[in-house]
Design brief:
Largest sheet: 13 strands, mixed
Distance between the termini: 38 Å
Length: 225
């Protein structure tokens, strides 16, 4: 099931590089994602939009796909849609194909992280990063994403800019994560670029991923108080 999740977001293009198909990339670039139909409950903050990711794997740590299929790709490029919600310290991330088919949902809080795939399988881990690497094949700090998309940093930004009279973070390093904020709106950045690990910091905690780049484009932000 995990490999089918990755295959739904990417197609094979070369022996060691996997990229999204041109048709899906064009559709993704031309059409903003549709905001969810369900209203936001009281105390919930919600973002929806599009994502793309480039993952550099450690070939030595990956198992062959199949006896006849050869080695898995060392670079994988994924794209799709996301829905992120946060309330009272609990964050939930849903990933879908560019056409909107839900693939999996991950949930993170102080006690750990869980995920459910579209076929009903469940997974759990101590951290959201470990869980999303297992289920989505990319590391995502689900609990921190809401804070980052809300411009609420636990660390001082490396670079700021004044946008419409308000000082906004432009670049920050949050532990192993390098963050780039662009296209600021009233309440959130229109684009967030995440690189892992930040700068020249050593890769830790991941047995398979060498480097990761994730770009989020926010099409909708909703709150209910």
């Amino acid at each position: 099931m995990i490999r089918r999740l990755a295959s739904a977001l990417a197609t094979r293009a070369a022996p060691h590089v996997r990229v999204t198909s041109a048709v899906l990339v064009l559709a993704l670039a031309a059409c903003a994602s549709t905001p969810p139909d369900t209203p936001v409950a009281a105390g919930v903050e919600r973002w929806s939009g599009r994502f793309s990711a480039t993952v550099n794997y450690d070939p030595a740590a990956l198992r062959p796909q199949s006896p006849e299929g050869g080695p898995p790709p060392s670079v994988e490029r994924l794209a799709g849609r996301f829905l992120l919600s946060n309330a009272a310290g609990t964050s939930e991330l849903e990933l879908a194909t560019p056409l909107g088919q839900t693939l999996a949902r991950a949930r993170a809080d102080a006690s750990g992280a869980t995920a459910t795939t579209s076929d009903g399988r469940s997974y759990s881990a101590d951290s959201a990063e470990a869980l999303t690497e297992q289920v989505f094949r990319i590391r995502l700090p689900v609990g921190r994403l809401a804070r980052w998309l809300g411009g609420r940093l636990a660390v001082a930004p490396v670079e700021t800019a004044v946008v419409d009279g308000v000082t906004r973070p432009v670049r920050a390093i949050d532990e192993d994560w390098n963050l780039q904020f662009d296209d600021w709106r009233v309440t959130h950045p229109g684009r967030l670029t995440i690189d892992w690990p930040a700068g020249d910091r050593p890769r830790t905690l991941s047995a398979t991923i060498r480097r990761l780049n994730v770009r989020l484009v926010v099409d909708s932000h909703e709150t209910a108080r």
